[in-house]
Design a protein that fits this description.
- With 423 residues, this protein is of the alpha+beta class.
- It folds into four domains: 9-28 and 152-235, no CATH class; 54-136, no CATH class; 254-318; 323-422, no CATH class.
- Helices cover 55% and strands 10% of the residues.
- It is built from 22 helices and seven strands.
- It has helices at 9-16, 22-39, 43-50, 55-63, 65-77, 83-92, 99-105, 111-122, 125-133, 139-150, 155-161, 167-174, 183-189, 195-206, 212-218, 224-235, 249-258, 261-267, 291-298, 311-322, 355-371, 380-399; strands at residues 270-275, 278-283, 303-308, 324-326, 346-348, 403-411, 414-422.
- It has a four-stranded antiparallel sheet, sandwiched between helices. A three-stranded mixed sheet has the order 1-2-3.
- 28% of the residues are buried.
């Protein structure tokens, strides 16, 4: 690109409609080009740039024992030297003469091969983790680097992030190309996808029951953020990441009154928050936006709007709002009793060490069981602890969280264990 001045057909239409100025467009194009160049760097160099790591600290990282061992492991795997030669250099190496340098001095490795191995090492995530362990960079620096490598924002997304264009304006411009606005076409126009990649994905779609978006993600042709931003243009519906979003207990009760668990699960739509007469809902599949219109007929007094969220975020929020029901494996049906209200919820981070909390959780479970007229069965308590620990681990892995909130409810005389991830 010529300093941000060589405009594509899409960019020319944005300019012609007067939605952005030439200066704003040039700035966005320059930002995109810089990001594309930076994304080609090995992760080790990229995090160094992002964290503004001093040159001497970067050199210290390269000479670190773990870095040198990584270089040696790659060289050994490629057959550039023998195990005996490596062992000899390991015995004689020191801080002044790193392992890879010793291999060159001994003639077991060429200087050119050493540079290639160093490049391979810088491309490894282990190099970044070492920098974090030494306190030279933060996990946030690594997260930003990984996002930059996987998600190079299009000019449209950069303009949108800078509040220089709206989704409606983008939707309007894309429809200048075709009223039948298709996902693949929008990605092509944003230069996020090639014609060849689109043809391959469409070919796979015709032979499977997967959506085009899921195929593009599976093939790693686009990043999640790129896909959902494109969907937000296609459906003129904003995409929200909702990082760190949580429901408050009082808020949960009110939202569950508007959208019951059955309706949410069947229609794949969630209530997010209510402000006065405004209710915001979320879907992960734009095709489910129509579900909002069904709710509008039930609550005509409410103004409703919808946002897009990822499938992963939808699963997390669904579990937070409604709880994930866990089954203890106890097939006995207790007699009918009145519904009980849980006295407390317990939040577990390390079940193996939080023995007092685990004990309280079991006592709460026994309370409801006894209310229903059920006595403990043989080895019930240790089995209950095992059940909670296994589900804690499973849910933490599934929802990528560290803590799980457990609670009990009684429905139709049966004690139900519910769990929600704490994100």
């Amino acid at each position: 690109m010529d300093g941000g001045k060589a405009y594509s057909e899409l960019e020319n239409k944005l300019l012609k409609e007067g939605f952005v100025t030439p200066e704003d467009m040039a700035s966005a194009k320059e930002t995109r080009q810089q990001n594309l160049v930076r994304a080609q760097k090995p992760i080790g160099l990229l995090i160094s740039d992002i964290a503004n790591l001093p040159q001497d600290e970067f050199k210290r990282l390269l000479r670190d024992k773990k870095t040198q061992e990584k270089i040696a492991a790659i060289g050994l795997e490629k057959g550039l030297f023998s195990r005996e030669q490596l062992n000899e250099c390991q015995r004689n190496g020191d801080a002044a003469n790193p392992l890879s340098v010793m291999l060159v001095h001994k003639g077991y490795l060429t200087e050119n091969d050493r540079k290639v191995l160093l490049q391979r090492t810088l491309e490894s995530i282990d190099f970044a983790k070492l920098a974090i362990s030494l306190g030279l960079i933060s996990e946030l620096d690594l997260e930003r680097a990984l996002k930059l490598k996987s998600h190079q924002k299009s000019v449209c997304e950069i303009l949108y992030d800078r509040n220089l264009v709206t989704l409606s304006e983008l939707n309007h411009v894309f429809r200048k190309f075709s009223q039948d606005l298709k996902l693949g076409q929008i990605l092509l126009l944003q230069e996020l996808l090639t014609e060849t990649q689109l043809k391959e994905a469409l070919s796979e779609q015709s032979a499977s029951n997967l959506s085009l978006g899921k195929i593009l993600l599976k093939r790693r042709y686009v990043a999640v953020e790129q896909l959902y931003f494109t969907l937000s243009i296609q459906y003129n519906t904003p995409f929200q990441k909702l990082d760190g979003y949580v429901y408050y207990e009082k808020q949960k009760m009110a939202l569950r009154e508007f959208v019951g668990q059955g309706y949410a699960l069947e229609n794949r739509i969630l209530p997010l928050f209510q402000s006065g007469n405004n209710l915001t809902l979320a879907v992960s599949n734009p095709a489910n936006i129509w579900s909002m219109h069904g709710l509008k007929s039930l609550y005509p007094e409410l103004q409703m709007n919808c946002v897009l969220i990822t499938d992963e975020k939808f699963g997390q929020l669904y579990a937070l709002l409604y709880g994930e029901m866990l089954y203890t494996g106890d097939s006995r049906q207790p007699p009918q009793s009145g519904a009980a209200t849980p006295d407390q919820t317990l939040q577990l981070k390390h079940p193996a060490t939080q023995k007092e909390l685990m004990k309280k959780l079991y006592e709460e479970y026994r309370y409801y069981q006894e209310t229903a007229g059920l006595k403990p069965f043989e080895n019930e308590e240790p089995l209950f602890y095992s059940f909670i620990s296994e589900n804690h681990q499973h849910l933490c892995e599934r929802y990528r969280c560290k803590e799980i909130l457990f609670r009990f409810e009684v429905h139709n005389g049966r004690t139900e264990v519910l769990a929600s991830p704490v994100t």
